[in-house]
Structure formats: C-alpha cells, structure tokens
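Weekend entry, working from home. Most of the wet-lab plans are on hold until the incubator is repaired, so I used the time to fold the two sequences that have been sitting in the queue since the last round of cloning. Logging both here for the record. First:
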Amino acid sequence: MKRIFPPLAIVSAALLWSLDGLLRQELYHISSFIIVALEHSIGALIFLPLLFKSTSKLKELNQRGWISIFWISICGGMLGTYFYTKALSFVNYIDLSVVVLIQKLQPLFAISLAGAILREKLSKRFMFLAIIAMFGGYLVTFGNKPFGNWDDKSIIASLCALLASFCWGSSTVLGKHALKQLPFEVVTGMRLLITAIMALIVIAYLGNISEVLELKKESYKAIIIIVFSTGTLALSIYYYGLQNLAASHATIYELVWPLSAVLLDWALKGKMLSLIQIIGALMLLCSMGILTKEDSNE
C-alpha cells in the first residue's frame, strides 16, 4: 500500500491543477505577477510557523540545496507560470494545440535532467512506458485534430511554452534534489516564501503595488480558493509524492491532467471522448498503472 500513495499524491495534484484554469477565469483582468504574489504570500503565511520550527534543518542545507530551493521558487513558481500564461495569450491567433503540445515536452526535460543530475537509472522498460504515456497524453488532448499553420505568433507562443516546459521540468528534478535534504513540508514552505518575495519585488519594480490595493473582494475570494485547492494544497501534495518517487516517474504521473481536463470538458460542456481519445486514455492509464509496480526510488 505504501508504494501506491506517492503516485496517488502526484495524480491528485495533477487532477487539482486541471481545475486551475476554471478557477482563474475570473482573474483574467489581473496581472499574472500579482496573482502569483498574492497566492504564494497567503500560502507562505500558512507555512511560516513550520519554517520557524525548521530553522535548524535550513542551516544544515548545503550550497546545492539552496540552489535547488531558489531554482524551484523562481523558475517553477514564477517564470514557468509567466511563460505559460504568455503563451496562452496568443490563443486568439493560433491553435491552442500548439501551446499545449509543446507543454507535453516537460517530461522529456525532467527525464533527461533526472538522469544527468540525480543519476536516476532509466531502464528500457521505463523509457518505453514513458513514451507510451506521453503519446497517450497527446491523443487524449488532441484526438485526431490537425495542427494550424505556423506563423510568427505561433513561433512566439511555442517558444514561451517551451520555456515553461523547461522551467517546470527542471523544477521537478531540482525539487527532488532539495527533498533529499529537507522534508516536503519545508520545501513547500520555502518555495512559497521565496516565490512570494520575488514576485512582490517584480510588482514593486513595475509599479503595480496600487493594483493590489484596488482589487475587489471577489478577486481576493477567488485567490483564497485557489490557495486551498489548486495552489498551496496541490503543491504540498505534489511534494509529498515527489519525496517518495523518482523525478522521472513523477513527471509521467503528471500526464494524468490531459485526461482529467478532457473528462471535465465532457462533464461541463457535454463534449464526448472520441475513439482516439479513449485509446489514448487507456494507453496513459495502463502505462502509469505498470509504473506503480516498479520500485521508483531505485
């Protein structure tokens, strides 16, 4: 049973993240940096008492550990979100599939860096299952829909999505490195705190502090809901799973989000899964089911 809990935690976090777009829809008029700053500030306040109790553990953290913490905070917490949001801002001009497909490259970055940085052994069996899972995720997301034409806006959006994929994929690996030295609760708290501080610095530099004070109660309510669902809660669940899994395995379990997103679209808008999407879902679920039987920390 202990072996199933970490994969289940990653899958649960991915399911929560698939709801994130719905929750953020009413915040479209607010700067992404302001949302990141407020969301992470509230989460950091929740974890602050725990961080005070863990000062002795933080003092023992070596230089590579601190680099990992700052990397996941700045790249994973702030830049990844910014680049992905920037890519999505072009969806009125390009096919959304261009943005989302390139986002599917995240596992490739994570798996490559896991082998290079963490020295995780990537067996032929694992690589085969990883390819099956990523292809299944692609089929679930797009079915048999063709791509649009590649123009300047497509290239810019694709580059932004590629940068987001690198930020999040590398953060999975560096997060795993930090979790080798600190408990997942402390890593979660430090990421929230550092991301909040950096985002607030950016807001102050851009002169957007006044916008924070002008936000309506409805906006703050939406942000608080995000914190206790797809934000801080999902992040802490994710780091619990990552602490007990190889980074290369965790990034594959994250691919459950395309399936949940399509099912959500079916539940809310009545859009049925096509045969190709059903085949992709089976490929995705079967490959992840087989992965749970492996000793993922070897």
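Second, folded right after the first finished:
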Amino acid sequence: MNYGLYINGKWVKSTSDETFESVNPATEKSIGNFAAGNELDAKKAVDAAEEAFEKWSSTPAPKRGEILLRAAQLLKENKERLARLETIEMGKILEEARGDVQEAIDITEYMAGEGRRLFGNTTPSELPNKFCMTVRRPIGVVGVITPWNFPIAIPAWKMAPALVCGNTVVFKPASDTPLCAIEYVKILEKAGVPKGVINMVTGSGETVGSAIVKNKKIRALSFTGSRDTGDWITKNAGIKKISLEMGGKDGIIVMDDADLKLAIDGVIWAAFATSGQRCTAASRVIVHSSIKEKFVHELVIRTNRLRLGSGLKSTTDMGPLINEAAVRKSETYTQVGRNQGARMLCGGVRLPGRGFFFKPTIFENVTIDMKISQEEIFGPVLSIIEFNKIDEAINIMNSIEYGLSSSIYTKNIDMAFRAIEKIDAGITYINSSSIGAEVHLPFGGVKQTGHSREGGITGIDEFSEIKTVYVDYSGKLQKAQIDNRK
C-alpha cells in the first residue's frame, strides 16, 4: 500500500514522486511504501502552517484543549489497534507498545487541561498604581522531528503542548516508523484539528529534516534523536527556539544494602526493555564489590531466560532491534568490548534467520575508559562496573558526556540523598529502574543529552513565549529604577 504526505488538510503525493519502504523488523516483510518528501514538500508544509497560524492562535485556548481532549478519547478507543501496529512496525513487545500509546493518551489529556490554565504570573510593581503580569503567547510555526523508538508517544509529547499553546506544526517522523505517525495524525485530524495546523512530511533527514531546520519561517524546533544530529541542528537552525533531547548512557548504582531481587528486576527492565532502544535504558550497572558476584550470577541467569521473538506473541520478552544497521552496531560494540578486555558473560550474537534479533548481552570487568561504558549503543548491551565506596560510584556515573537518567538501589537514606545531590542527570530514581517517566513531570537531561524539559508545565514552557505586561493607571509618567526618593 502507498501512503502520502499530509499538507494543508489533505493527503497528497510527494512532488518527488518517489517512495521508500517500511518493514516489520521481526519478519523483514514490507508494511508499505511511503512518500519520500523533498525540500519543496517541506516548504509547502511550512507555508500551510504559517497561513493557518493566525486563526489557530486566535482560537481560545480552552477550545484548543477541547480538540486535544477528543484526540485523547480517540487514542483510547484505538489503543489496541495502534499498539499492535506499533509492534509490527517498530518491534517492541505488545505490552510495551500499549504503554507507548498510553503515554500519548496521558500527555494529551494533561495538555488538554492546560487549555484552561496556561498560567502566567502576577507580581507587585515597585511603583504605586501600576500592575505587572506575564502572559503566554504562541511561538509560531514549530518544527517537530521525532525518533522511531516511541513513534506515537514522543510525537504526542511534543505536539500536544505545541498545539494547546496555539502553535502550528510541521512534523517529520522517523523513516523507520512512518505508518505509526500517519495513524497518529489521522487521530488529530478526526479530533478536529483544522487544516494547515498540522502538516506531516515523511522522508529523509538529509532532505526533509534539513529543509525544516533551515526554514526561516520555522520559529521553534523540537528534536529527539542522536547527538550528532542535534549538534548539526544547533549549527544550522539559525535564530530559533531549539529543544534538544539527544540520548544517554544511563547507569544504575546497586549498593551493598540493596534488595537484590528488586535491583535485578529493575536492571533487566532498564537494560533489555525495548531491546535497549530507549534513551533512558541502563547500559551500565555500577555494583558494590561485596555483592557483585552474587548479583551478577543471578542477573545472568535471569537474562538467559529472556525469550526473543515477535512482539505480538504473549510468550515474547524481548523483540527485535529496529533494523540491520542497529544489529551491526550492537555486534561492533560487542567485539570492541571483548577487544578492550571486558569479559562477555552472555549474548553477543544475533539470532539466525529472518528478523533483526540480537541476544541480550552482559559484560563484566568493564572500566570507565572502555567504549562500551562511554558511548551510547542503543541496543541490549549491558556493562557491569565494580566499586567500593559511594563517591566512587557517583564518579563512575558522572564519567560520561551524557546526563539523562540514573538510579540507585539502597535502603540507606543518606546514600539516596547523596546520589540525588551529586549525580549529574536530569532524572534520578531511588529503588526503581532508570525508565518510567510520568507525563506530568519534567523529562530531559544535562550535558550532551541536551537542554529541553518536556512533560508537565515545562512542556508548556518549551512551546510558548512569555510576554511581560505593565499597566500603569497612575495618570502620570512614572520612571522605574529612577531614584525619586526625597
């Protein structure tokens, strides 16, 4: 089946008249052919969004929120269908795909409520008979570029706040999951989003993505993806409001007093859920030396029990990687880890036959200077690093360029709060896995992870401008900061 672009309220062919294929990563069977948009398609989408902006931004925010609330209801009604589609196109197991759609439901409901808030602030003036406040204003046309690993949730995390704030959107989804993006846009269309308010152009980052980034009519960009692409965006976007979330090299500290079963449950979930293809996935476990042997022994046993296969099967624990390149990347890092002296305890190979399956892999005897403990792999490859004191563990945690998510397992409140204070990360979990963001709280990181905070009120901050308003009803010229004291 052939699928088109969505521009100005219509599904259209690309002016390139070219297509690309999306495949099921578990079977390598074709899902469909999708329009390969180009620079002209991106320009048309931006122009349509610009034309629609005035009317949409003038629509009362509560009315915009009502449309989002209808979208949330439609997502609920279509949750199982969308989850199964996501499993087929992206590969994650059905339970996780349902969670992805639920995230989209949750953030859309939350942002619908913001249509009746969009709070500003009031504050006293330093002068008499003068009133001061701030109000929120939409930014304009927003470019949204999303990855394939959460192909419904992440677009919703970005577009729901963008829309309720009164912006119009040009959306470029990942080329590995275009059908999920199309179905999400259809939900918004059915919910009543007017024509031109949302425009979607599928295609490569080199053509469509670049055209969106460089277009001067785009007033803001929201991007989730690789650090290299984020760096390129920063250098080429011009004067725009830019929101970047660029991955992580997340870690879990396991103290000597930790509940080992709970910690192992959390590590397996963090390292191998979505086959390690999460920016919050734990690819490093920093384990106290006194419990390391027992911990690693139980972890390897549990890991070897994980069942790989189609995410549609209830017996499957872990699905495929997204494509052949992802498999090769995990293979390469596995070999690099062995070459640099790490000891592989399990996994390290792809499954024979069709599909992009790679066995969950664990290394021990890992040091902080090894590539497998420094670089984001985005696959099911876990490094075990040993420590003796909490400060050493925190230094290991902070020894990377990223700073997204982190976790510590301990029953000691002092250790927990030292981790909260000293770990350089946007998120820290105590006695919980490194994954599990909730939509009403900020999500984002520090250092090379980026600088955005999506979710909750910070999502509104990302997609709105603050205007300061002064109302002087004194009837005379008053001069702030001018010393008129007698």
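Plan for Monday: verify the second prediction. The chain is about 40% helix and 20% strand.
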